[in-house]
């Protein structure tokens, strides 16, 4: 199901004091109390006051409403943050950019500074969903998108991510590979991180700005999402009541080359989608690589980076043999059961292709 939220949904919720019942066969028709936050402090106050009811923040709603319809999310109340002043893109001291959490995907991709200096991010966004979704979905919401695992989205199926303590239906059914993780999984969950945005932010070394009941804090994007471990219900490291306010992109070196690749492969009844983001710093005199960052999406519970594999590229001449070694190092230990072998092979080829494309390009991200 790919539900689109009416443009005035949050406004209707504000006027009536509740989220209007969504007239679909899958939705219970319940009226969810909805309060509009007038500023960040008010959002924190409302979250803390409703802590016993487990409120959810509502902005673009492209993800939350679908989860409500599927009865995956069952909050007792909503906090409308759609009017908070968190949209926009601003320059940071030192040359980076601050992306407001309520900035839509579409506005981010078409922003001149993003498309010129962080082309990789714009490419990843344009590969994420369709045009109507990108016009409504916000950066903050997409950052917190839940997995697309069919068992998680089926309220009738046991799922430890949806219902803590439950078994993983995918593992119980012996389903591996395909839409499931081949790296970083646990015996409790083999779901994957769903969005291309996160893969791009991982290689850009972004920082996430947060506001919570205890005040502001920032966290490296690499530390934002977590692996499932023994408690897969938590996708990220947000504390209760915390809200993403912005994403900061650091200034890139003058000569950076990048590539973003999204591939879909099918074999028999197995299908898999892989995304790869690459950022390379090149020595223009020698043609060697100064440094490299590589992230893969669709293989783990979070965008997957292996720093020891990236270190193989530092000081080396680009070449397919090198890229093959890097791909093998990134995917070392991948689950080969069932469809895992096919998915790993697809990811391996995608990493090699993305590295080859990035190393052959002129610098795309000059300030």
Known CATH architecture of one domain: 2-Layer Sandwich
CATH fold category name of one domain = Enolase-like, domain 1
Uncertain parts: 1-8, 20-27, 362-367
Full CATH superfamily name of one domain? CO dehydrogenase flavoprotein, C-terminal domain
Strand order across the largest sheet: 5-6-9-7-8
Number-wise, the strands total 12
**H/E series:** HEEHEHEEEHHHHHHHEEEEEEHHH
Computed structural class:
alpha+beta
What helical percentage do the residues reach?
25-40%
Report the sheet with the most strands, covering strand number, pairing sense and barrel closure.
5 strands, antiparallel
User: Any idea what the shape is?
Assistant: globular
CATH class of one domain: Alpha Beta
Q: How much is the radius of gyration in Å?
A: 21 Å
What count of helical segments does DSSP give? Answer: 13
Instruction: Assess the beta-strand content as a share of residues.
Output: 15-25%
Mean pLDDT across all residues, rounded? 87
Measured between the Cα atoms of the first and last residue, the distance is: 40 Å
């Amino acid at each position: 199901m790919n539900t689109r939220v009416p443009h005035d949904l949050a406004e209707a919720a504000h006027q009536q004091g509740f989220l209007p019942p969504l007239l679909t066969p899958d939705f219970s028709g319940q009226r969810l109390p909805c309060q509009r936050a007038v500023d960040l402090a008010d959002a924190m106050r409302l979250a803390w006051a409703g802590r016993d009811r487990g409120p959810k923040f509502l902005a673009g709603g492209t993800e939350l409403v679908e989860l409500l319809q599927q009865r995956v999310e069952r909050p007792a109340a909503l906090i409308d943050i759609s009017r908070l002043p968190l949209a926009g893109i601003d320059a940071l001291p030192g040359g980076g950019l601050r992306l407001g959490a309520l900035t839509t995907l579409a506005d981010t991709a078409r922003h001149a500074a993003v498309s010129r200096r962080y082309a990789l991010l714009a490419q990843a966004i344009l590969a994420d969903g369709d045009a109507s979704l990108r016009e409504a979905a916000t950066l903050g919401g997409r950052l917190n998108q839940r997995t697309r695992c069919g068992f998680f989205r089926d309220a009738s199926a046991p799922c430890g991510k949806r219902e803590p303590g439950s078994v993983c239906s995918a593992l119980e059914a012996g389903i591996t590979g395909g839409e499931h993780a081949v790296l970083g999984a646990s015996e409790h969950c083999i779901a994957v991180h769903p969005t291309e945005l996160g893969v791009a932010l991982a290689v850009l070394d972004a920082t996430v700005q947060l506001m919570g009941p205890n005040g502001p804090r920032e966290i490296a994007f690499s530390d934002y999402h977590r692996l499932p471990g023994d408690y897969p219900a938590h996708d990220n490291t947000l504390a209760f009541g915390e809200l993403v306010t912005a994403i900061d992109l650091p200034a890139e070196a003058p000569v950076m080359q990048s590539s973003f690749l999204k591939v879909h492969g099918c074999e028999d009844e197995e299908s898999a989608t892989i995304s790869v983001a690459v950022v390379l710093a090149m020595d223009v005199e020698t043609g060697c690589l100064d440094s490299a960052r590589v992230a893969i999406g669709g293989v783990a519970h979070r965008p997957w980076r292996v720093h020891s594999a990236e270190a193989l590229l530092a000081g080396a001449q680009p070449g397919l043999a090198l890229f093959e070694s890097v791909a093998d190092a990134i995917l070392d230990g991948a689950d080969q059961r069932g469809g895992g072998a096919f998915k790993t092979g697809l990811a391996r080829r995608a990493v090699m292709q993305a590295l080859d494309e990035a190393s052959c390009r002129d610098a795309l991200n000059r300030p």
